[in-house]
Amino acid sequence: MKAWGSCNKVYLSLFIVFFLVYGAAIIQLERERNSFSHINKNRGVWDLPPLVLSALSGEFKGVVANMLLLEAGARTGTKLERKEDGGYLVAQTANKSNCKTIHKILTAGQFLDPHFQQTYTVAQGWLPWDCNMVEETISILQTAIKHRPADLFPVSFMSFDYYYFLNDHAKAGKILLQAADSMENPPSYLAILGSRLIKKGGQTEVGIVMLKSILANMTSGEPGYDDVNQRLQSLQAVLILEKAVKKYHEKFGKLPVRPEDLLSENILLSLPQNPYNLSFCINQKGAIFFDRPGCRAVK
User: Fold this and answer.
1) b/e string for 129-159 if b means 16 or more Cβ within 10 A?
2) Would 231 be classed as within a structural domain?
3) Is 244 a domain residue?
4) Is residue 112 part of a domain?
5) Which of 1, 13, 107, 202 would suit a FRET pair with 143, their CA atoms being 20 to 30 Å apart?
6) What does pTM read for this prediction?
7) Given this model, what pLDDT does residue 73 score?
8) How many domains does the chain contain in total?
9) Which domain holds residue 59?
10) What tens digit of pLDDT does each residue of 32-81 get?
């Protein structure tokens, strides 16, 4: 009986030891699992050097690029959170670390397949808006423009980013004008809108040079030729007035109120002709407008 009692104590001791070891193992395993999940959430094949990832992808680069795009898409969007009153609150899922991961994924996917349209589309639709990653988005768009020279969307997106997010009107205009100059049979709106933006950015003379370059690659009678030529004439007239306004300000220490003031003070002998058959306008900052009927709403 004593021997049996001793065995029971031994078994009980072993059971307690086993239970403690098992419990500690479960706790440690849970910690490792949580740590592993965190790593999986923010790390993946997109962290590999681009050349290594390309080599591992082999002839399936396009497939891997598609998978990376799906991975990026799965990390974007919104979520619903229940409020105390029973309603729902829409909350953004993006956070700083997630934004960086999305950018890494998209960049890796574009490296594998730079011709893939959806990569730059997802980047434009997410990164500058929710992640405030404008420069990173522009870099992706530049790669898309390089490999998709006939695609107007990355050009338009990049011009918009400079105009809207960076408030660089001149750069936004240059992008459109450069695209119009380099493309075969570009739509005339690229030159029209680009020249408007570059003038708004205070670089009228640069716009004139670029419009002349665009016209040099076009033939008279070609669709859009007259529109571009008309815009060129308007900018040339604006440049004359801008220089005259500058002289007026240097001479009198103030800005003219109307273009006619330039005539009365002998700054100009005559006003240039507006090809749009409208009167030129001058706002309080001395900016010239060529497309304001009746000079209304000039600020």
Assistant:
1) ebbebbebbbbbbebbbeebeebbebbbbbb
2) no
3) no
4) yes
5) 202
6) 0.79
7) 86
8) 1
9) 50-147
10) 556 544 555 678 888 889 998 998 888 899 999 999 999 998 888 666 66
